[in-house]
DNA sequence: TCTCTCTTTCAATTGTACCTGAAAGTTGTG
DNA sequence: CACAACTTTCAGGTACAATTGAAAGAGAGA
């Protein structure tokens, strides 16, 4: 397979994956493009590689910076901004886990806490609702803790060892 | 808070959560509704509770059965089909992990394997592409193994212990 | 200050996944 | 078989998110 074809397949696959996980297809593609670029790229590079508009490129680059997945880089003597991706896969995954926890786990946990405390009434249907809420709240807390531990495992020899075992 | 309000908030929150994770909003809402229903519901119950059409209800009920998250139940003397949700939170999460692994991890792993084996050529850009592909393939395999282990942890005392520790 | 280059914004457009409802299909019963 | 009770399908419509492109903004150097 030629380089160009491989590159396109990679970017394409990444975009599809992203969209199945609730992440903007283009954002995922920009990320993929930067991941396989040996050097920094500027907005125009990305626009022409992915055939997208200036506005779209700009929006998704900002979003990726916001997620902590790419960095802005300034070249001496150039006005243009360049971008590079974090290429350490473990850091990438860690960053994604943290961001999604913050953006999507946290809000629902708040709703669950509220329901946990405030739903009144009696009867079977109320009990079933309360139990569901409590179970999910519980599970969410466990998940939160597990994510924190995994994300910070570098600092913890014991968990690091267990994690490696888990993945073998 | 009254029961009805709590119920609506629960269903609403679940729907939002689902859509942020690439799961059909309505499917998540139907699931939520069944989770907090003391008894089985039929298609008409769901249509009126969620104000959705017959076709929509049918589609999403089939999908939920397909995911292994709800079951069909027949009542003696009734033609209608009734539905109940699996309410054990751990089984629910397990099922979702397995299904998503099958549906979304597997396809991209195939692309990565293909690229891993078939990308030809030399030069820095080819090397960077190859490295990205290899890293991701690696990570994907680890994730796959970790999911398998977590999902089957009931049978494995050591990992069960570890998991509990991870979540405390 | 003016101009040139690059970045950001946003109203209008486009794209896409989802939903509807009616019609066709299925199945049990008299 | 004919009917009634439900389920499934799907062509067309809707709603929402993503995208465009042009205009406004921002900053550096002459």
Structural key phrases:
3 strands, 7 helices, homodimer, 3-stranded antiparallel beta sheet, DNA-binding, mainly alpha, 70% helix, 7% strand, Arc Repressor Mutant, subunit A, 168 residues, 2 domains
Task: Describe it.
Two copies of one chain form a homodimer. Chain A is 70% helix and 7% strand. Chain A has helices spanning 3-20, 25-35, 43-50, 54-66, 89-118, 124-151, 157-166; strands spanning 41-42, 70-74, 81-85. In chain A, helix 3 crosses helix 4 and helix 5 packs antiparallel against helix 6. The longest helix of chain A is centred in the middle third of the chain and has 30 residues, at 89-118. Chain A has a three-stranded antiparallel β-sheet. The mean pLDDT of chain A is 93. The two termini of chain A are 31 Å apart. Chain A is elongated. Chain A contains seven helices and three strands. Chains A and B meet through helix 1, helix 5, helix 6 and helix 7 of A and helix 1, helix 5, helix 6 and helix 7 of B. Chain A binds a DNA duplex (30 and 30 nucleotides) through residues 24-26, 42-44, 52-56, 58-59, 62, 79-81.
Lay out the secondary structure:
2 copies of one chain form a homodimer.
Chain A: H1 3-20, H2 25-35, E1 41-42, H3 43-50, H4 54-66, E2 70-74, E3 81-85, H5 89-118, H6 124-151, H7 157-166
Antiparallel strand pairs in A: 1-3, 2-3
Helix pairs in contact in A: 1-2, 2-4, 3-4, 5-6
The structure holds a DNA duplex (30 and 30 nucleotides).
Helix content of chain A: over 70%
Per DSSP E runs of 2 or more residues, the count of β-strands of chain A stands at 3
* SS strand fraction of chain A: 5-15%
Number of helices, counting only DSSP H or I runs of 4 residues or more of chain A: 7
* Strand arrangement, major sheet of chain A: 1-3-2
CA distance, first residue to last residue of chain A: 31 Å
Written as H for each helix and E for each strand, in order along the chain, the element string of chain A is: HHEHHEEHHH
- Major sheet details of chain A: 3 strands, antiparallel
CATH H level of the largest domain in chain A: which superfamily? Answer: Winged helix-like DNA-binding domain superfamily/Winged helix DNA-binding domain
Report the structural category of chain A.
mainly alpha
What does the oligomeric state look like here?
homodimer
The overall number of domains of chain A is: 2
Biggest chain contact: A-B, 59 and 60 residues
Q: Please, what is the average pLDDT of chain A?
A: 93
Name the overall outline of chain A: elongated
CATH class of the largest domain in chain A: Mainly Alpha
Low-confidence stretches of chain A: none
Assign the CATH architecture of the largest domain in chain A: Orthogonal Bundle
- Our Rg estimate of chain A from Cα atoms comes to 21 Å
Briefly note the CATH topology name of the largest domain in chain A. Arc Repressor Mutant, subunit A
């Amino acid at each position: 397979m030629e380089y160009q074809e491989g590159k396109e397949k990679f970017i394409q696959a990444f975009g599809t994956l992203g969209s199945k996980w609730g992440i903007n297809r283009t954002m995922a593609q920009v990320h993929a493009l930067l991941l396989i670029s040996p050097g920094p790229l500027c907005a125009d590079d990305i626009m022409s590689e992915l055939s997208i508009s200036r506005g779209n490129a700009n929006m998704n680059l900002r979003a990726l910076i916001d997620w902590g997945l790419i960095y802005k880089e300034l070249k001496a003597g150039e006005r243009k901004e360049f971008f590079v991706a974090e290429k350490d896969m473990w850091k990438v995954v860690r960053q994604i886990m943290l961001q999604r926890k913050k953006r999507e786990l946290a809000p629902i946990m708040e709703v669950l806490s509220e329901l946990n405390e405030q739903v009144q009434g009696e009867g079977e249907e109320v009990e079933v609702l309360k139990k569901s809420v409590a179970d999910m709240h519980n599970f969410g807390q466990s998940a939160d803790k597990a994510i924190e531990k995994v994300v910070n495992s570098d600092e913890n020899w014991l968990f690091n060892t267990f994690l490696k075992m888990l993945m073998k």
